[in-house]
Amino acid sequence: QREEPTHFGAGPAQLPTEVLQQSAKDLINFNNLGLGIGEISHRSKDATKVIDDAKAHLKELMNIPDTHEVFFMQGGGTTGFSSIASNLSAAYLGKTGKVGTAGYLVTGSWSQKSLEEAKRLRVPTEVIFNSKDYNNGKYGSIPPESEWAGKVKDGQFSYVYLCENETVHGVEWPRLPECVTSNPDIELVADLSSDILSREIPVSQYGLIIAGAQKNIGLAGLTLYIIKKSILEDIKKASEEEIHKAGLPITPIAFDFPTVVKNNSAYNTIPIFTLHVMDLVFQHLLKKGGVKAQQFENEKKADILYTSLDQFPNFYNMPVDKSCRSKMNVVFTLKKEGLDEKFLKEAAELNLTGLKGHRSVGGFRASIYNALSVESVQKLANFVREFAEKNA
Ligand code: PMP
């Protein structure tokens, strides 16, 4: 039992209490087996059903077409950065016989980190744009497509990568770039770690979606992948010998997409408890009315909080351009010096926690993921208003 939290941490994040209550029971005794879910074989009938259920519920929630496959891997978003670079460059080699260039659209520190990992693995990369170059050396905007679409058109890209919601900098793509989605030769690869299931998305337009679990969908430890099946076939066409000769990285076996898919996400021991929590979150969301209903609620929450912050432009500094403000991570700083600690202390007295900004940017960040209710966000918005009125 617990009082409903109002925790705005960026991740691991607050989860629905009823999901945790069910998970706690299942950790001790699952399906009346007399054993907890973490104590059964990952190849047992009960574990296989968890995997299949999670996939089916996610497909229903996201309207995933038959052209795409869902799988789960350990290692978090960061392992995703490496596995994307190695698997997708192999896919391009398998498909074309050539080494392609991986194009990165850099809008914050997570897309930058992903780019760095591809470079570290010696995958040829090109930065199509870095939004810092358009905004006085700071993240906080997305340049208009007309500025960089030419590069996408002229390049030989094995894939084009973006982070749909930059968790640290609070920058979210309002829509997918058309110059990428309208080009059938380019696979769009997107990191949705911090906005998966927060809004409806057209899955068919993505070559690959990855999302770490610990924000909107569960506990740390598993990463969700949704991949176009044709990419799996292309990866299989490139032999290890050819990949090696081309100077591309060989994917470690536990992260080799076709191997994981062939084994229904259980090539090696899948953390089945973590996956079960994810599935309970999926079921919870289905009961709530699905992604459409959640999106409606999230838009309302973001509107409440941004409106309250925008009401005091001389007090709160909003570093992100309105056109790409995140609906999940609301980033702001105080214009007056010396009040940061007071803000956090008074918020905590109202049980509003997890508001400290990322260490690289300072200030504040309110993460208003799916599990945060409209009431919780309203409570924070009221505090934001009162704090400004008292301290301006
Ligand atoms: N991508 C995004 C958008 C993230 O927010 C994070 C973590 N906060 C990561 C990737 C990295 O995830 P992990 O810590 O699971 O490796």
How would you describe this structure to a colleague?
- It catalyses: O-phospho-L-serine + 2-oxoglutarate = 3-phosphooxypyruvate + L-glutamate; 4-(phosphooxy)-L-threonine + 2-oxoglutarate = (R)-3-hydroxy-2-oxo-4-phosphooxybutanoate + L-glutamate.
- Its EC number is 2.6.1.52.
- By secondary structure, the chain is an alpha/beta fold.
- The protein folds into 2 domains: 24-285, Type I PLP-dependent aspartate aminotransferase-like (Major domain) (Aspartate Aminotransferase, domain 2), CATH 3.40.640; 290-391, Aspartate Aminotransferase, domain 1.
- Helix content is 41%, strand content 16%.
- It has helices spanning 17-28, 45-62, 76-96, 109-120, 149-154, 178-181, 229-237, 240-245, 257-262, 272-288, 290-310, 340-349, 374-391; strands spanning 6-7, 68-74, 101-106, 125-130, 157-163, 165-166, 171-172, 188-191, 208-212, 222-228, 316-317, 329-334, 352-353, 364-367.
- The strands form 4 sheets. The chain has a 7-stranded mixed beta sheet with strand order 2-10-9-8-5-3-4, sandwiched between helices. A 3-stranded antiparallel beta sheet has the order 11-12-14, covered by helices on one side. The chain has a two-stranded parallel sheet with strand order 1-13.
- Helix 2 runs parallel beside helix 10 (272-288), helix 3 crosses helix 7 and helix 11 (290-310) runs parallel beside helix 13 (374-391).
- It starts with 5 loop residues before the first strand and ends with a helix.
- The model has no long low-confidence stretch (mean pLDDT 97).
- It binds 4'-deoxy-4'-aminopyridoxal-5'-phosphate (PMP).
- 4'-deoxy-4'-aminopyridoxal-5'-phosphate binds at residues 11, 76-78, 110, 163, 167, 191, 193-194, 212.
